[in-house]
């Protein structure tokens, strides 16, 4: 039976009286951004009182008063891609400790959906955006930048825009992959590139061409994938095989493209690594469970997210701070998918 006269919700004043402090002190204690301004013992006493009373802060009223919402938008291109959960966790770990909450939206790599999702985030008055969807030419991000929206790019960059960005050291990773394969004595190394409309795709493809040229190998065995996907990786490898290209090793633009190679190996009766070695990029979870386990370039995705969040908090606290780009180190993880031709 419903109580016809429910008790009114406890107020901040009720919490302050229960804790024996001024209302302003209680407010500071309950806000992670201002808690350090009072003693730890006072903060604990206020939080115990709030918990005992069942007090819930009115974030809407607070945001109206301070013009700050304590929220940030995270724009992801494809939540089904396993590289993004650790990035999300890294973002959350830093923002939550700073008193912020994260709204996560998925664009499915669709420009109209992206625009709608970002408009939705802005209607919620987010204080900034962390964007993982950037293309080299990205009119929407350019427009947002001109409107003064605080943004940090993660894993990608936009040309000639000067936005803060955190990426892995893609060029170094691709060069390490090529050197590893060259040491195995291949007859040719092919590259299955991600979309060249993205900075990630372009930087990695350029690094591959430079690396094979430095070793005196051909740079002509390159096929661009329309998407960073398993199906596109399979289609690219089929195209190389169908035109009679000669190679015994493949560098894939990312791990999903490399998984597409595994599909084609099974279709065509090819042995990996005996007939063709393959290297991925990102070190997604469970690659060591494949047969053979996939050699790949490991990117510190959790730290990528954490650094992007720290960078955005810096932008929020100091809007005039000059934009900077941070490159995080990557490493080659050698597993069973690479070996000298004919081995295995």
Overview of this structure, please?
- The radius of gyration is 25 Å and the shape is elongated.
- It has three domains: 12-57, 434 Repressor (Amino-terminal Domain); 69-168 and 301-328, Response regulator (Rossmann fold); 170-299, Response regulator (Rossmann fold, 3-Layer(aba) Sandwich).
- It has helices at 12-19, 23-30, 40-53, 59-66, 84-97, 111-123, 139-146, 170-183, 199-214, 230-242, 255-268, 301-317; strands at 71-76, 101-106, 129-131, 151-154, 165-168, 189-193, 222-224, 249-252, 277-282, 295-298, 325-328, 331-333.
- A six-stranded parallel beta sheet has the order 2-1-3-4-5-11, with helices on both faces. The chain has a six-stranded mixed beta sheet with strand order 7-6-8-9-10-12, with helices on both faces.
- Helix 1 (12-19) packs across helix 2 (23-30).
- The chain contains twelve helices and twelve strands.
- The model has no long low-confidence stretch (mean pLDDT 91).
- The protein has 344 residues and is of the alpha/beta class.
- Helix 11 (255-268) links the parallel strand 8 and strand 9.
- It comes from Nonomuraea rubra.
- This is LacI family transcriptional regulator.
- Keywords: DNA-binding, Transcription, Transcription regulation.
- Residues 10-66 form the HTH lacI-type domain.
